[in-house]
Every structure is written in C-alpha cells, then in structure tokens.
Amino acid sequence: MRIRQARAADAAAIADIVNAIIKDTLVTFTTDERSNESIAKDIEARGRGYLVAEQEKQVLGFATISPFRSGPGYAQCRELTIHLTPDAQGQGAGRALIAALESDARKDGVHVLVAGISSANPGAVAFHTALGFEQVGRMPEVGRKWGKWLDLVLMQKIISGE
Q1: What EC number(s) are associated with this protein in UniProt (predicted)?
Q2: Residue 49, CB-side half-sphere exposure with 13 Å CA sphere
C-alpha cells in the first residue's frame, strides 16, 4: 500500500467510496451525492491537502483537509475528512493517510486538526482517539438523516509545538 497525492483521475474511485457512504450510512449527514467533476475540482483546489491510499492501483480510501472556519484567526486550523472502502478498514490505510496528512499539514504551518464525526459512527471516534485526537465537544441533534436526529462529535489534535 502507498499514500500519494490525489489526481483528477482518482475522482471516479473517490466518488464510489463517498457516494456509497452517503447513500448507505449515517456516517455523513448529507444526502447529496458527489459527482466525479466536483471531486476532481476539489482535488485540484486542495493540492497537497488531498491524499489517497492505493494498493495495486486500486484506491482504498482518501483523506483531505480544508479550512475549519473562515477568517485569519483560524488560519492554522484545518478540518479533516477520511473515508475508506469497507475492505480497507482495519488494514492500516487510515493510519497511514492520517500520518501523511499530518506531516503535510505541519509543513504548511497548521497547528490544530479538527474532525467532525457522526454519533452514528463510534468506530471513527475510537480510530481518532487511537491517533491522539481528543473529544472536545458534542453538538446534540445538529444533523438529521433518514428521519433520525444525530449528534456531531468534535475531536481535535494539536500537531505543532508552537
């Protein structure tokens, strides 16, 4: 398995991963599927902030970082997103993606990474905890999908010593 920068050619594989999550799970609150074109634009816009894990030329998952909030006071804070195929979970791809993302973020002067996790995804809370993230908040019933109210669990990790 290797971690590399995402390319526009990865958009279809990424769309397959994320759209299955959107359609079939409560991991994300959105119901709007992503097009290959919108993902390709995101890859181009984020540059080094968009990574994929691949094995034998097959995309196993992806991780991105984006601004947490607007305004200069939040310039050193980024929100991360990570999704894997079901077969890749528990195989080290997630840990490798986060490690590479953190390394790139440090080079870019990022101080804090934030993860917003659906309360319907306790495995993601455990995963982030194992990687040094701490739960810093819980926003009850801010998401709604399939007629269910869902909490948003906020986790963060300070990645720079400054």
Answers
A1: 2.3.1.-
A2: 20
pLDDT, one tens digit per residue, over 83-103 is 999 999 999 999 999 999 999
Return the SS3 of 125: helix
* Topology of domain 2-158, CATH: Aminopeptidase (3.40.630)
Model confidence pLDDT, tens digit, residues 22-47:
999 999 999 999 999 999 999 999 88
Q: Specify the length of the chain in residues.
A: 162
Rounded to an integer, what distance in angstroms lies between the CA atom of residue 106 and that of residue 78?
Answer: 11
pTM of the model: 0.93
* Closest listed residue to residue 1, CA positions, set 96, 102, 80, 131: 96
Delimit the domains of the chain by residue range: 2-158
Strand 148-158 vs strand 134-145: parallel, antiparallel, or unpaired?
Answer: antiparallel
Residue 44 region by backbone torsions, left for phi larger than 0, else alpha for psi between -120 and 50, else beta: alpha
As a whole number of angstroms, the distance between CA 103 and CA 86 comes to 25
Residue 92: which region, alpha, beta or left (left: phi > 0; alpha: psi -120 to 50)? left
- Structure tokens given for 87: 């077969």
Structure tokens of 62? 């992806």
